[in-house]
Amino acid sequence: MSAPLLFSTFEVTSQAFHRTALSYAIVNLKPIVPGHVLVMPTRVVPRLTDLTTPELTSLMTSVQHVGRVIEKAYSADSLTVACQDGRAAGQSVAHVHFHILPRKFKGDYFSERMDDIYPALERSEASLPRHFMDTQSVDGRFQPLKVDADDSRPPRSLPEMEKEADWLRTFFVNAHESSV
Fold first, then answer.
1. Which ranges of the chain does DSSP label H, i.e. alpha helix?
2. Pair 174, 17: CB distance under 8 Å
3. What CA–CA distance (Å, rounded) separates 108 from 81?
């Protein structure tokens, strides 16, 4: 059995739908748009510059593979791929990660004002640390992921996230790529 996957100190194994030896992808607790996922290195490090060359290669390859799947699965026209690398850039969880958001010309919440997604991403990240600190540790090892709702994006339940992860995993299995 594989080791649990941690997003910083938060256990997210059941939310994972793609995994390599050095990186993985999870569904998002509070997606900005349907299909908003996160891709991160397996080793918990705060900044891109902390990654080894093999880790960075794996991470970027996973961003590319996951992006292809998300674009197809959500019938998107393109993607927003973002990384807030450090606190001054808006990073709130000290584990480097990329956001992948499927985008559409029509029917996308942000389709009329495409760049409005960036302030939404900033707000999304800014609310996380406060809520993470409110969680309790499990067996003294790591904490379950828990974030309070905001009015526009309530957090999804674990069964909802697991259902999406299971569905996304089928795209990797069908493509003979790595899946969890």
1. 53-73, 117-126, 128-133, 158-174
2. no
3. 16
131 is a catalytic site residue: no
Q: Considering the candidates 97, 99, 131, 176, report the single residue annotated as catalytic.
A: 97
Burial class (CB in 10 A: 0-12, 13-18, 19+), 99: buried
Helix (H/G/I), strand (E/B), else coil: 114: helix
pLDDT tens profile 2-61: 789 999 999 999 999 999 999 999 999 989 889 999 999 999 999 999 999 999 999 999
Q: Quick one: tokens of 74?
A: 């959500």
d(CA 21, CA 62): 11
| Euclidean distance between CA atoms 25 and 178, whole angstroms | 11
Quote the CA–CA distance of 84 and 105 in Å, as a whole number: 25
